[in-house]
Amino acid sequence: MKKTGICRIENSKITVNNKVIFESATSNFSEFAKEAYKNFELNYPKFHKMDNLSKLAFLCAEMLLNNEEDNSRTAIVFANRSSSLDTDFKYQESINSQENYYPSPAVFVYTLPNICVGEISIRHQMKTENAFFVLDHFDEDFLNDYSLQLLESGKTEKVLCGWVELYQENYTAFVYLLTLE
Q1: How far is CA 23 from the centre of its chain?
Q2: 19-23 β-sheet, strand order
Q3: How far apart are CA 62 and CA 39, in angstroms?
Q4: Each residue of 108-141: pLDDT tens digit?
Q5: What span, in angstroms and rounded, lies between the C-alpha atoms of 156 and 168?
Q6: 3-state secondary structure of 23
Q7: What are phi and psi of 103, to 5 degrees?
Q8: 3-class DSSP assignment, residue 89
Q9: How far, CA to CA in Å, does 177 sit from each of 24, 89, 117, 134?
Q10: Which residues pair with 20 in a beta bridge?
Q11: Does 151 score more than 80 pLDDT?
């Protein structure tokens, strides 16, 4: 297999193929994500409704996937440690609030980690396999082995693969595009 692109997002910085392409002074992820969205003129209104985990994954995908290419045979294989705990916590707060009790369906939609995979698939018209694993740590060998099986099966031509972790203001993403050589 061959990595054809690498994106890392952490510490208010986006790096693609070891080159910093965007940096912000803010330490707040929501503000950073908005700034990056505007900077790259992404023009995808659903972005503003996404939870932070989906925004993080979405930004990585946007940096690596060309909107001009056919991505229908691109699979997604992601993992993280916290699942959707950041959004789960916010949803639980809305249930616990006696003054403002209203468990929002807009928040509930994002209480599964695979929703970020769905957002990317919709944006890029992906029609193949996807998986989101919850692991104790980034296990590149596991993700690559799983991706290799998909590539060798002929079910996909490329795999968007990596680690997308976000809980509160702690976030890191390391996502890469794999193909067979």
Answers
A1: 18
A2: 19-23, 13-16, 2-10, 170-179, 158-167, 74-80, 130-134
A3: 12
A4: 666 677 888 999 999 999 999 999 999 999 999 9
A5: 34
A6: strand
A7: -70, 105
A8: helix
A9: 25, 31, 14, 20
A10: 15
A11: yes
